[in-house]
Amino acid sequence: MDARNNMPKAANRGRQVSVVFETRMSALTSLKAAAHSPHRARRLPLAPAGIACRLLLAAAFCFLTFPRLALAGDINGAWQRQPTGTLAWLRAVHFVDRDRGWAVGGSGALLSTIDGGKRWTIARRPTEDTLHDVYFTDAAIGWLVCERSIYALKTDDEPRSYLLKTVNGGVTWTRVEATKGEVEAVLVRLAFAPGGVRGWAFGEAGALFATEDGGARWTRQRLPTKHLLLGGALFDEQQGWLVGAGLTALRTVDGGLTWREGGVTPETIGMVAPRTRLRAVSFIDERRGWAVGTGGVVLTTSDGGRTWRATPTPTDAELFDVKFFDASEGWAVGEGGTVIHTTDGGSTWRVEPSVTTHTLESLCFTDRAHGWAVGFGGTIIAYGPAAPTNPARPSLRNV
What we know:
- The chain is an alpha+beta fold.
- 15% of the residues lie in helices and 34% in strands.
- It has helices spanning 7-36, 40-43, 46-71; strands at 77-81, 90-95, 101-105, 110-113, 121-122, 130-136, 142-147, 161-166, 174-176, 187-192, 199-203, 208-211, 219-220, 229-234, 240-244, 248-252, 260-261, 278-283, 289-293, 298-301, 309-311, 319-324, 330-334, 339-342, 350-351, 360-367, 370-375, 379-385.
- The radius of gyration is 28 Å and the shape is globular.
């Protein structure tokens, strides 16, 4: 949130707290005077004196409590840039909690953190190939999607893409041949259902490889598209969605055995750009979801992806990733450091202050108060609570 927009409110709260303070001090002074009055014994018998003490305690309690309530709304979230020590183009980021996370990118760049990104450690590269995606099912088991340059291939039967797996939090990695004999298949993204048993790896020309045993075996699944697939989400082991180039939006309700197109056409969403790429998708339940892509496009569905409609946004920048917490609040990031935010389910979006002009390609939130986005030039920005902008609360020590 823009701290400048909260300055008038903070000033009003400051004046309110000042008035409350003066009122409480006046009440305390009157009570103390009454307690030391020579006529106290005649005017305040034992029972009323007890009431006076209770009033004194109540006044102090209100004074201590009210400012906290009044100032709580001043603590807003803000994006801040985190130092990384690399200029690699970071393609993906994933956190398992608010402390432990990983970011990956070009030429095997692999970064990790155990303190929410205050310090990022550049790990030993597990490969010199491009790392397109990173996904951890828990703090120990993680996956990398790797692509080998065509100029680095030594033989005609060497696969372009492969996966790397760790079972010790990224200390060591083991190569997994997910594409088997399909050496031309290029994978770009990875998604797992909750629990980490069923997962998908997907990419160019409609390539989709699935696992039902936590990645021990991968099999090719056929899709009704040959377009590049760029984003996916698994709500559970049966229901999931894929999006990509050419306004591709696919859904399955049987774990990927069959797929149906989501009915996204330029006519149905009121657009005239059939080449629009949908780059990412986010669902909060079996029915409510959002997809983002080229030209600031945001699509939403309320029927599980059977139909989609476009919602207006304040940007024409390409959006690369989207995350929603619930039916109301969500974020999207993209080209030129663009960050947009909604609190009404995407009916309206607001461009949020960004701390970079570099393209942001991947977004991860562990809860609504802790998030990260990564992109070009080793860029990592983090979202978290901003420092309060109010003066310190007066002390009762000398009262």
